[in-house]
Design a protein that fits this description.
Layout: E1 2-4, H1 7-13, H2 17-20, H3 34-43, H4 65-80, E2 86-91, H5 97-103, E3 107-110, E4 115-119, H6 125-144, H7 154-172, H8 186-197, H9 208-215, H10 224-240, H11 257-262
Parallel strand pairs: 1-2, 2-4
Antiparallel strand pairs: 3-4
Length: 263
């Protein structure tokens, strides 16, 4: 599979992304409409058409993005012995402030059997490598971990995110880490974890509070779930001298054993 040449789709249908998403129907469960697909992808960062688009919609993306992602993907798949999945590349939603602020305009959405990546023109090769590493780590975790994604709890989600960003740290270096990894000191993370996140470990991903805690919406600390997940996984990997691709099948509860004993 690998990278699907969505450049042709964008050239023909950029101004109508719902119609474009008809091309994706066969990759989703039977009965899913193109409108439902676009709504879901847009929530996670896919573009909405700009009135004053550049000369070509392809100018909204980094140069040679399809070739670059495909090369990096082949390396990752071999390195992690991961599944062969289709990867779809689209421009990112430049009006999404959270994605612009927290992720410098890049985003992604991973499933166990497919991957979507969203970029803006200014994303560098290092950023592209980092977001692909993060999102493909999700694909590997989702395909290998015993829990079904529909049954994921807040604990499962923060471990999923923490595992993926630790993979970025290992493959791309500290300079490529997301900004949120440095928001808090270890003492602050301990407090956020034990007072805010830990009491809600069992929240199902369908509950509103799950995402409020994950992203730090409202009165919760910014990116609380992401930050504590990264902290938990990093501590576990260092304590056990492991790499992120060696823990893809490990239960989420293993990452909090030390926390349970400590508190």
């Amino acid at each position: 599979m690998g990278v699907i040449r969505t450049d042709n789709w964008l050239t023909e249908m950029y101004s109508n992304p719902v119609t474009l998403c008809k091309k994706l129907i066969s990759y989703f469960p039977k009965g899913t409409s193109e409108r439902e697909i676009y709504h879901h992808l847009h929530l996670h960062g896919m573009y909405q058409p700009l009135e004053h688009v550049r000369e070509s919609p392809l100018d909204s993306l980094p140069v040679n993005i399809w070739d670059h992602v495909n090369r990096e993907y082949k390396k990752l798949q071999k390195e992690w012995n991961g599944p062969d999945v289709p990867i779809f590349l689209f421009p990112s939603d430049e009006t999404n402030r959270r994605i612009s602020r927290e992720f410098n305009g890049k985003s992604g959405l991973a499933f166990h059997n497919k991957l979507f990546l969203f970029f803006v023109r200014q994303n560098t090769k290092e950023e592209i490598k980092a977001v692909l590493t993060h999102e493909y780590n999700h694909v590997c975790r989702l395909s290998k971990y015993k829990n079904k994604e529909a049954d994921y709890t807040l604990l499962d989600t923060i471990i999923l995110e923490g595992m993926a960003e630790n993979a970025v740290r290992e493959r791309c270096g500290d300079r490529s880490l997301a900004r949120w990894t440095s928001y808090y000191s270890e003492n602050q993370l301990e407090g956020i974890l034990t007072k805010i996140i830990q009491p809600n470990f069992s929240l199902n991903r369908t509950e509103k509070k799950h995402n409020d805690l994950l992203y730090g919406k409202g009165f919760y600390p910014k990116m609380a779930g992401y930050c504590t997940g990264y902290y938990l996984v990093k501590n576990y990997l260092e304590a056990n001298n492991l790499k992120s691709n060696q823990v893809l099948e490990i239960g989420s509860e293993k990452f909090i054993e030390g926390l349970t004993k400590k508190h």
